[in-house]
Amino acid sequence: MATQNPQPLITVAICTRNRATLLEKAVRSVLEQMTPCAEILIVDNGSSDNTELLATNFAAAEPRVKFFSERQTGLSVARNSALHAATGQWVIFLDDDALAEPGWLAAYEIFFSRLPDEKIVCAGGPVTPLYETPPPRWLHPEANHLFGPATDQPVRMARAPWGCNYAVRREAALGVGGFNVRLGHSGQSLGADEETELANRLRRTGGEIWWLPEAGVKHLVVAERTKLKWRIRSAFGQGRSRAINRLSRKGTAFQRGVFTATRVLLAPFHCGVNLLVALVSFPFQNGQPAVRALVHAAATAGLVFELLRRTFHDEPI
Description:
alpha/beta, 11 strands, single chain, Spore Coat Polysaccharide Biosynthesis Protein SpsA, Chain A, 43% helix, 9 helices, three-stranded mixed sheet
């Protein structure tokens, strides 16, 4: 009588769209570290390149690699599909443009096998940028770089972990509804914060979020993402996502209305101050303070845009 394979401890989920070349490198960086406790799940989010052929070949050559398509566009949609399809107790999300560093999977496996606290539901580790072209001088050296303490410990950083290196207990994530599909990248929209919002919901249910310094990845930063135009577009998208997050935490329509009115009234002042700072500080520190001010102004503009859009269109939170 054939015996069933035991449930893997870990599913490494890689959601991808039209990045076959990068996907191959990401998958190979994990395959080099594979153990019987893990599987890889590739989720194709409506690619039109040869992603399907590449993923199918990986699955045919390696039994621990699985593949399926999620045609509804949206990173959060694809990640929720991965949560449902995964068989691992823990799902680690690795971006298709990221590379797992040596020891990455082992660090997660050791930690999940010997949890210091059963309340742990989410974890993540360092992210080191891998620039396609030399970054401009106005880009702060710590941009695109996530680092933290040298030991495993509960997360005390507001933005950690990042979605390109993000592990979650599968049942816990599904139990709170998974990723918010109104957040995250979708097509040309540069939405954000879906992983932070999920982590905060898990924390509010009593879960703990942990930092794993040995579980590091390198994350590709393409040339386009080092251009000021892209940074401003990204900040605008993050502002829109922040509006959705903040509104979702307001319990009543009255509270949402007060929050919206307050932020809309203050927005011209915040944007004006930041634009003035950008103008005055442009000659200093290679323009870094000026760019930070422009990014803050764009984020405020995005937040107000989304608040007003939801007010006039009466969209659900």
